């Protein structure tokens, strides 16, 4: 990697860090989204670890519920409450 590219990456990371400090809810949103995608991928792999996709989804659901409450996004809140219930069902069925 060139020095210019490294500086550019460092600058972007500093900008993102300052944005997160200014808007901490953005971190909740992106972690919820990332964990939702990760949970889907883990489950789709159909491996010995696939059952943990449900647990990952539960964490994602909690983050989305926090986000929805803070943003007063009640449609998103309702959906995530249902998804939390289905994630609990999946975790119980796959892990117990």
Automatic annotation (TrEMBL):
| The keyword Transmembrane is assigned to this record | yes
Query: Which keywords appear in this protein's UniProt record, sorted alphabetically?
Result: Membrane, Transmembrane, Transmembrane helix
Chain ranges passing through the membrane: 49-69, 76-95
What this protein is called in its record is: Nicotinamide riboside transporter PnuC
Species the sequence originates in? Ralstonia pickettii OR214
